[in-house]
Amino acid sequence: MIAQGTQTSIGQPNVVAMVFFFVIIAITLGITYWAARRTRTTEHFYAAGRTVSPVQNGLALAGDYMSAASFLGIAGLVSTTGFDGLIYSTGWLVGWPVVLFLIAEPLRNLGKYTFADVVALRLKQVPVRIAAAIGTLATVVFYLIAQMVGAGGLIKLMFGLSYETAIIIVGAAMIAYVLFGGMLATTWVQIVKAVLLLGGAFLLAMLVLARFGFNPSALFGAAAAKYGDAVLAPGKLVSNPWDAISLGMALMFGTAGLPHILMRFYTVPDARAARTSVFYATGLIGFFYLLTFVLGFGAMVYVGPDAIRAVDKGGNMAAPLLAEFIGGTPFLGFIAAVAFATILAVVAGLALAGASALSHDLWVNVVRGGKASGDEELKVARGATVVLGVAAVLLGITFKGQNVAFMVSLAFAIAASGNFPALLLSIFWRRFSTAGAVASILTGTFGTLLLIWLSPTIQVDVLQHSGAWFPLKNPALVTIPLSFLVGIVVSLLTSPSGANERFVHHERQMHMGAASGD
Amino acid sequence: MIQPAGTSATEIRALARARGRIALILTTVMIVIYFGFIALIAFDKTLLGRRIGSGLSLGILLGALVIVASWLLTWFYVRWMNANYDTALRAIGDREAGR
Q1: How near does any CA of chain A get to the CA of B43, in Å?
Q2: DSSP A108-153
Q3: Do B54 and A101 touch (CB under 8 A)?
Q4: A 378-437 residues with CB < 8 A to B
Q5: Handedness of CA A71, A22, A34, A383 (dihedral sign)
Q6: Based on the number of CB atoms within 10 Å of its own CB, is A94 exposed (0-12), middle (13-18) or buried (19 or more)?
Q7: Could you count the other beta carbons within 10 Å of the beta carbon of residue A270?
Q8: How many CB atoms lie within 10 A of CB A15?
Q9: pTM here?
Q10: What ipTM, to 2 d.p.?
Q11: Each residue's pLDDT tens digit, A390-408
């Protein structure tokens, strides 16, 4: 458990961590109780009554987005490989301007609860809703598995609980937030988490920089002096140039196709608020990723790559180990609790997005042909939340001990290739047809799944075969253009009757918002 | 009645085209900046490893600048939209309401 020459209390019950852990559970359940009394209609449940302010939504978007993979994962990657981790730090941010320029405002003006509302708006409801629900659920499920397995492992390491207990606690808290408090509780859980995570990461980074006279260069220089100049330059993560570009495409365009992020734009009053909230989110998330530079190199200097790998092979414990070095066991406990809050918030957002696809897209608009009452939809949405929560716990236990690190980038690749092209084309291209939308979503989703199966990610890293049929670790370089191409060609072949008039009709709503639309 | 409604529709479309142009330009700039950075990582590792100053490599500096560029682009877009687009849309809405 303990590496040579390194003293760490990671893996032993930590009193401070336990106290923070219970404080976080108590606060978030208190929020849920408060929110539950304000959650009576579907508009409350899915969209927090559309009363969330731009600053609140900016924080909540940041909370939804900064997962344990980015906090613990990037810090770990930088601390063990140096510069290479920064590919993720930058890639996960540059998706946000794209969301702002192309998606946020039209989405807010055209839709109600899910991104499928926008794609299906002027097309045939049933086929488009089914395809969009498949794209949504594929993204959500892979993201959720990665978070659950990560959560089980992390909580086991940090609090000394068993893996299964940890998964069940996370699942139960997630179900409680979403089931009773809907989007309002989920939003506030995100805000609490974003403040904790940004505050914790900032404090840790400042304490590291204080030892270098607040000069980041001196920190990087110390890392290079200890582990060689190579840590400041690109390394073996990008041995194949096309791999780097393909990964970059998945990271950049995946953000604009993540259902739990897109859903958040319906919680603000109008398009202007949606726009402003992305501005705040980009600022907060960018600031956080700049901090990961410092945390990663700080952990490299003070803990060391070997000691970090000795505690967790993936390097995920770099930030907690650094906290322990800087501030002792109490600070380790605090950072561990922050990581726990991070996981809780992300899985709650994912569960709500998945439940909306099941209830709003599949049940109401496919099974009931759009004619379900609000009460019925609310009941189905709550049922779907429980189903998804239980499924997440079972999947988390099923994938125990498996290598699921690739599932986050898989979720991004599906979002970028399955959801993003159809959403973009439905907003900007008047000839986009029902068949085109369905073909684009299904090609993007299943193409990504097929190619990732044939890629070194599964064949070599997971199945331990010697080679793979498809050369790239991430298929986005192929699947994003393919999904656009299929969507465009199929639309041109199936010239839709009346699609043009319907596009003109909705054009006004897209720019002015629903209130002044018709 | 037909005339002013037609004018509004034309104005909204012109406004939408201006917004579309800004959005397209800014998206392209973001793509060029990020994939320029990625291309350097992929094809010219030694350049990015070059030191500028005591411990700062060109790669780390450019990585931080990609984040700063994202901030500036979003800031520019929000400022442009708030100043031009919203004002013009509101003027159209007010005129229609007063009609």
Answers
A1: 6
A2: HHH-SSSHHHHHHTTS-HHHHHHHHHHHHHHHHHHHHHHHHHHHHH
A3: no
A4: 428
A5: positive
A6: buried
A7: 15
A8: 10
A9: 0.92
A10: 0.91
A11: 999 999 999 887 777 788 8
